[in-house]
Amino acid sequence: MSVVPGSRRCAITVADWVERALTRRIHQKGPRGRSQELLIRPQDELVYGVKFAIGMTVCLSAVEIAHMALLHSWNSEVFAAITGLIGTITGVLIGQHA
User: 44-71 and 76-96 helices cross at what angle (nearest 10)?
Assistant: First the structure.
């Protein structure tokens, strides 16, 4: 993790919303009572893992939709995998900000 002092503009690009969602913002009082914001960026492995989990959730959702459209039945194993990935993503996003 790297700590980047300063404003929001210097540390995070607008296009990378996963990294922005995982970045911690800490407000501290600096010298002479000035407010200072520290941005703690997540590790690259965590960002790549969350992006992979989101991509797999989209792919598995497409598989479930295709299964329902072609076979007219519900596949509970694919749905369980989708539910597990959504729980993992939610846990990472909530845990990173705790």
Answer: 160
Q: How many other β-carbons are positioned within 10 Å of the β-carbon of residue 23?
A: 20
- Tokens 């039945």 found at: 73
| Biggest CA-to-CA distance, the chain | 68
Q: Is residue 62 helix, strand or coil? A: helix
pTM score, whole prediction = 0.74
Measured at the alpha carbon of residue 48, what is the angle toward residues 45 and 50, in degrees to the nearest 5? 110
Q: Each residue of 16-39: pLDDT tens digit?
A: 888 988 999 888 887 788 888 889
Give pLDDT, residue 33.
Answer: 81
Whether 37 contacts 25, CB under 8 Å:
yes
23, 40 in Cβ contact below 8 A? yes
